[in-house]
Write a structure and sequence with these properties.
Structural class: alpha+beta
Helix content: 40-55%
Number of helices: 3
Number of strands: 3
Radius of gyration: 16 Å
Largest sheet: 3 strands, antiparallel
Number of domains: 1
Distance between the termini: 33 Å
Strand content: 5-15%
Order of helices and strands: HEEEHH
Length: 111
């Protein structure tokens, strides 16, 4: 059982290595994120001053990711509002989960 987990983890790491840039990291609250309905993996995220992105390993390569979701950056919010009061630090996770739910319902309708 432990061996299978180790092999699965190595395969997952390999998929991430070739399908995502290294600056994408696992979210701290990984269990709160829905897994992609196509690849079965929870997304990795990239958060910086001017952007926030989440993506999985679906797609052709690192440049052509099939499922990428974004959220407002803290700098965008600050420039728009003049402060960071009300900034939703959880917006990226919410956007990703909503995207996955819509993707699942679309697959059921077309499936």
């Amino acid at each position: 059982m432990k061996f299978n987990f180790m092999v699965e983890k190595e395969l997952e790491d390999c998929r991430w290595k070739y399908m995502s840039f290294d600056w994408y990291k696992e979210p701290k609250n990984k269990n709160d994120w829905l897994a992609c309905s196509e690849c079965g993996l929870t997304p990795r995220i990239w958060e910086f001053d001017n952007g926030r992105y989440a993506n999985c390993v679906c797609g052709i390569d690192v440049w052509n990711n099939k499922h990428q979701v974004k959220a407002k950056s803290i700098m965008y919010y600050y420039r728009k509002n003049g402060n960071t009061i009300g900034y939703d630090v959880d917006e990226l996770r919410k956007n990703w989960n909503n995207y996955i739910l819509k993707l699942k319902s679309k697959i059921k309708i077309n499936g």
